[in-house]
Amino acid sequence: MIAMIEGRGAYSRLKYESGVHRVQRVPETEAGGRIHTSTVTVAVMPEAEEVDVQIQPDDLRIDVFRSPAPAGRASTPPTPRCGSRTFRRDSSSSARTRSPS
Predict the structure, then answer these.
(1) Distances in Å between the alpha carbon of 5 and those of 17, 34, 44, 57?
(2) pTM of the model
(3) What kind and span of H or E run contains 21?
(4) pLDDT tens digits for 59-79?
(5) How far apart are CA 8 and CA 36, in angstroms?
(6) Separation CA 59–CA 83 (nearest Å)
(7) What pairs with residue 95 in β-bridges?
(8) Closest Cα partner for 55 from 83, 92, 93?
(9) DSSP 8-class letter at 53
(10) How far apart are CA 15 and CA 42, in angstroms?
(11) Residue 34: helix, strand or coil by DSSP?
């Protein structure tokens, strides 16, 4: 379930509610009145302002990792198993951001 709560001070009042909560309920179909317990994860986040971000290709580092095979078995040729993309902040060119007008 996703809910948006608006109003003055809503985030400041709810920000500490993030985390795992225990939920207890008695279902209508439970004849013995036993309590069912489960958990729910709550994430409280402020709504972010929209911005345009442009990342130059020179600002990216793309790594591809190779593995011989699953479970350590050797095979030829090695095949890509996973990869990652990293934004390099120390790059000479920088990402340009523009605030909404």
Answers:
(1) 13, 33, 10, 38
(2) 0.43
(3) strand 19-25
(4) 888 877 666 666 656 555 545
(5) 36
(6) 17
(7) none
(8) 93
(9) E
(10) 10
(11) coil
Phi (first) and psi of residue 80, to 5 degrees: -65, 135
Measured distance CA(46)–CA(37) in Å, rounded: 29
- CA nearest neighbour of 36 among 45, 47, 28: 28
> Over 70: is that where the pLDDT of 20 sits?
yes
Helix (H), strand (E) at residue 13: helix 10-14
Extended beta strands in 31-94, E state: 36-42, 52-54, 60-67, 79-87
Around Cβ 65, how many Cβ atoms within 10 Å?
A: 10
Q: How sure is the predictor about 96, in pLDDT bands with cuts at 50, 70 and 90? A: very low
User: Closest Cα to residue 24, out of 13, 44, 38, 10?
Assistant: 38
* Burial status of residue 55 (CB atoms within 10 A of its CB: 0-12, 13-18, 19 or more): middle
